[in-house]
Specification:
- By secondary structure, the protein is mainly alpha-helical.
- It is built from 21 helices and no strands.
């Protein structure tokens, strides 16, 4: 890649590292909390706890108006142009705008909590908990602007810190209140308290940063003009978020009709583990957004080169994680939850199939479109996904229960991703490294053989099998990728340059790169396996 693209890749990798590390810590903390809360409450009450946030999460999506996406886009692009004062003004105005909108949606949720509980969830007893959860909306919107600003300003370490504070606060307070006998109410209060603490912290640090930037600003553009700029860019993404966000509560409503609280509790338990993939996938998608924002449509070759590189290495990272979760799903669920959650393992395995769509651009296409300002394409992608879910969810839920709803979601993502591929190839001449992608899937499949044999023959404890089997899988996967030609010396050299800037990550990744380089050097005069 060129120097400019390498620099963008370095920024993305550095940002992605902090996002992944922050997401990893928060996910581990929240997963441990969820395990303890799940055990303390049991499947029945845990299912009610999960349903208590459906309305709040839906309204939070409606409260965005695409403003956070606009903050990422303009803070990244203006910073790249040297207009940091203008970026600071946009962020400040975004905070005020989002707080006003958040307050309005809080009042709406608080006033209509009982109506939502009866009409939408068919659970009148949840009205009090929905009202309690509504307070979090105000602070969620503040956090969303802060974390978006940190992303656009390449200060993702503050993003990670804010996320971790929210997770730790939520975990400590929730568990303490449940142990004190407050049951579901205690868990919900802990959830709200986590957002309050993180919201105050995140916004305070951001305002201190913006104060320094604003000193050099001569920007006199008013609040109204800034708001119009943000909303005009973000409206297609806002509609996309509404369409995509509606899918979750819609499927929750379908589950409430066709399944039991125990089924929903098992699904929630499974979700706590496939969130492990999200720890890596979400930060990658998030980091690619400002990266593509630094490019423009005139850079055809650079866009194609960067996309191919990003999509390929995203696939290399995500596919083995999904494969490992499928292989060890039963063992993981039994280790953590015991025999009470009987169907969670199959739910986890089915859902992980979603991430095998990554090679088709599942995690990179929307970042490409949004970064280039083509947000209407993202809107169409979301519309296709929603229509698929609306049609398939009730049909498959009635026939197959929870697995049917999961399959409906995977089908929706597959349909919308295929459309995104078509548009990317037609409009932007985007190319996929098809040969390498096929090899990645074959290598991922071949690497499972020793781990599967271990599970069939080992008499060791489940936890030991998971650790040994996981390490064995990763060792074989890392070895086969250079042997089969998935990676080459040129890519490894670029990757080494990218990783160099990440001081915490370089000591871990460099030995792997050196190991693969040695394998490639030995393979230069021998035919590849594939």
């Amino acid at each position: 890649m060129t120097t400019d693209l390498t620099r963008i890749a370095e920024d993305s990798a550095r940002g992605g590292f902090f996002l992944v590390s922050g997401s990893f810590v928060s996910t581990v903390v929240l997963a441990l909390m969820a395990i303890l809360i799940g055990r303390l409450l049991g499947p029945e009450l845990y299912g009610q706890y999960a349903l208590s946030f459906v309305i709040t999460e839906m309204l939070y999506i409606f409260a965005d108006f695409g403003i956070t996406a606009g903050v990422v886009k303009y803070s990244a692009s203006l910073r790249a142009e040297g207009k940091i004062g203008r970026a600071a003004k946009i962020i400040k105005d975004a905070i005020l705008l989002k707080m006003a909108i958040g307050l309005a949606f809080f009042l709406l949720n608080f006033a209509l909590a009982d109506f939502f509980a009866v009409t939408l969830l068919n659970r009148p007893e949840l009205g009090f908990y929905i009202r309690l959860a509504s307070v979090s909306i105000i602070f969620q919107v503040v956090i969303s602007v802060a974390t978006s600003a940190y992303l656009g300003l390449d200060k993702t370490h503050y993003n990670a810190l804010t996320t971790n504070i929210q997770a730790v606060s939520k975990a400590i307070i929730s568990i303490a209140l449940v142990l004190l006998g407050f049951s579901i109410a205690g868990a919900v209060l802990g959830h709200v308290a986590g957002y309050i603490i993180a919201g105050v912290f995140g916004s305070s640090i951001l305002l201190l940063i913006l104060r320094k930037y604003s000193e050099n600003s001569d920007d006199n553009i008013g609040f109204t003009q800034t708001s119009k700029t943000l909303i005009s860019y973000g409206i297609p993404l806002y509609l996309s978020a509404i369409l995509g966000g509606f899918a979750y509560p819609y499927q929750s409503f379908i589950l409430a009709i066709f399944t039991t609280n125990i089924d929903i509790g098992n699904l929630k338990a499974a979700a706590n583990f496939y969130a492990l993939i999200t720890v890596v996938s979400a930060p990658i998608t998030t980091a690619l957004f400002p990266a593509f924002s630094k490019l423009d449509l005139a850079m055809d070759d650079k866009i194609k080169t960067f996309f191919k590189f990003a999509n390929k290495y995203t696939t290399i990272l995500i596919v083995p994680i999904a494969t490992l979760l499928i292989i060890f799903s039963k063992e993981i669920i039994q280790i953590v939850y015991g025999s009470t959650y009987q169907t969670a393992a199959i739910f986890l395995s089915i859902h992980c199939l979603l991430y095998f769509l990554v090679g088709l651009g599942f995690l990179s296409l929307t970042s490409l479109f949004n970064g280039l300002g083509k947000t209407r394409i993202t809107l169409k992608i979301s519309l296709i996904a929603l229509l698929t879910i609306l049609i398939l969810s009730p049909i498959l839920a009635k026939a197959y229960g929870v697995p049917g709803v999961i399959v409906a979601g995977i089908s929706a993502v597959a349909a919308s991703t295929c459309y995104g591929m078509y548009v990317a190839k037609r409009n932007f001449k985007i190319e996929f490294d098809t040969k390498s992608l096929i090899k990645i899937y074959l290598v991922a499949a071949a690497s499972t053989i020793p781990s599967l044999l271990l599970l069939q023959t080992s008499i060791l404890p489940r936890l030991v099998n998971v650790i040994i089997g996981g390490l064995l899988y990763l060792a074989i996967y890392v070895t086969l990728t250079p042997i089969t030609g998935v990676v080459n010396n040129s890519e490894l050299k670029t990757l080494a340059e990218v990783v160099q800037r990440i001081k915490f990550l370089a000591p871990l990744i460099k030995p792997l790169i050196s190991y693969q380089e040695k394998i490639l050097n030995r393979q230069q005069r021998t035919p590849k396996l594939f």
